[in-house]
Design a protein that fits this description.
alpha/beta
């Protein structure tokens, strides 16, 4: 039974020990649901200053930082997307909404491939820190409207811009009808989140096997990163025999789509696709399958 959260506990979700949960079963007896999360982003070369965090480590305008990331939209998105499509992996896109105006060709390509979209804020160089409620509401409304106009899809999910939040973010996205968040990183299965209104699920996203962390933080080689993904997959596939697990592969095309990295990553896709234990899916479909087993209703 749910109890009041102790002092210092934010009360975002109940504690649920990994081994004592109701069993989750994925379609066709698969043991691990695998989803790929390409971050299709737009970074401003000279963004407005936020007093809580710098947009670039260098003084603005950061031509180097901007140009490095723009490789995603000019070149490496296509390389990454084609590798994913070859091996049957749809994307669930963490989208900087402004990309719909700046580079609509990239958004159109993802949409034509059958990829799902969720919001990653407007620009990845503008942060939620310091926003008032009216500002945050406008960003959510802009996200819903802009993606619908550009793709025909109604977004269901949220990954906060540059992983920045306010105390009200989760409550607001649930109020607007979004039903999953990627922002909690606290589990290897889909879990319910407490909100004032609506219903919200936390789908496992990953910092540990995120290519940003792999290459920028852990200084991995392409082969080391590929090995980490395979080890992550193998362990979750085994544990999923008891109750279905979720593996997310978060990507940034300007990193994984570089010529010297893509082959190692494509080897990971080949391994997972050939293994037979993976339900290769999209974020919304995974949440629906989980929710149906919790409530009997996938709607």
């Amino acid at each position: 039974m749910s109890q009041a959260a102790p002092e210092g506990d934010p009360g975002l979700y109940d504690f649920s020990p990994y081994r004592d949960r109701p069993r989750v079963v994925w379609p066709d007896g698969k043991t691990v649901a695998v989803w790929v999360a390409p971050n299709l982003e737009y970074y401003e070369i000279d963004p407005p200053a936020n007093p809580h965090r710098k947009s670039w480590t260098k003084p603005h305008p950061d031509v180097v930082g901007y140009g490095h990331r723009d490789h995603s939209n000019r070149v490496s998105h296509w390389r990454m997307a084609e590798a994913m499509s070859r091996h049957g992996f749809p994307g669930s896109v963490s989208l900087s909404i402004a990309l719909c105006q700046h580079h609509p060709e990239v958004v159109a390509d993802a949409n034509e491939r059958g990829w799902e979209f969720f919001s990653h804020g407007i620009y990845n160089t503008r942060y939620s820190y310091g926003m008032d409620e009216a500002q945050e509401r406008r960003i959510i409304e802009d996200s819903i409207r802009t993606v619908r106009d550009a793709t025909g899809q109604t977004i269901r999910g949220w990954l906060a811009p540059a992983l920045t939040h306010t105390p009200r973010t989760l409550d607001l996205i649930a109020e607007y009808g979004l039903d999953y968040t990627c922002d909690l990183y606290h589990d290897d299965q889909v879990q319910p989140v407490k909100t004032r209104t609506g219903r919200l699920a936390s789908i496992p996203y990953s910092l540990e096997v995120n290519d940003h962390y792999g290459f920028f933080v852990y200084n991995m080689s392409p082969r080391e990163y590929a090995d980490a993904l395979i080890r992550q997959y193998e362990r979750l596939a085994v544990e999923g025999e008891m109750s279905g697990t979720v593996m997310c592969i978060p990507l940034h095309a300007y990193l994984i789509g570089q010529p010297h990295r893509i082959a190692a990553f494509e080897g990971v896709l080949e391994h997972i696709a050939a293994d037979g234990r993976a339900w290769i899916s999209r974020a919304g479909d995974i949440v629906d399958a989980w929710r149906a087993q919790q409530t009997g209703d996938a709607a």
